[in-house]
Amino acid sequence: MTVLATSTDGRFDVTRVDIDRDGPTYTVDTLRDLRAQYELNFPNAETEWFFITGADALADIMEWRGPQEVIALAHIIGVTRPGHELRDPDLPADSWTLLEIPALAISSTNVRARAGRGEPVNYLVPESVANFIAKRKLYQ
Fold it and tell me: Are 1 and 129 in contact, with CB atoms under 8 Å apart?
């Protein structure tokens, strides 16, 4: 679905790094793998890394696996969304940034629940993704 959602925008690349890894997937593992893969392909590139997550998830980041390494591997961007107020994530001030986005009250949990009830998800996800979900009767 990620490939479908981004296929018309050449600025995106989709990776299978989480899918191809055996066992559970943690953010710290994903960041390690992506950076190692990138450094193999671009050994002399000076690159700034960002990890974008919902501001609600940012509040719990210190409970994640390897939180200090996550902070060392990427600058954390907490994206605010309606109905979620940020608690202080107790992170070093220069390691994270809040970014306010327009009030689009779209959540993946809600999209899956709607699809599970047989309700349309049009306009909540790209049309190609809505078609994919409907065709394969996902989340039902």
Answer: yes
User: How many Cα atoms sit within 13 Å of 51 on the Cβ side?
Assistant: 24
pTM value is: 0.71
Beta strands in 4-46 (DSSP E): none
> What element of type H or E holds 20?
helix 17-20
Name the residue with tokens 């490939």: 3
* Cα gap 86→82, rounded to integer Å: 11
Which residues are CB-neighbours of 83 under 8 A, at least 6 positions away? Answer: 105
Q: What is the pLDDT along the chain (140 residues), one digit of tens a residue?
A: 889 989 888 888 899 999 999 999 999 999 999 999 999 989 888 899 999 988 888 888 889 999 999 999 999 998 886 666 766 777 888 888 888 777 666 788 899 999 999 999 988 898 899 999 999 999 98
Residue the block writes with tokens 């899956």: 112
Distance CA 85, CA 87 (A): 7
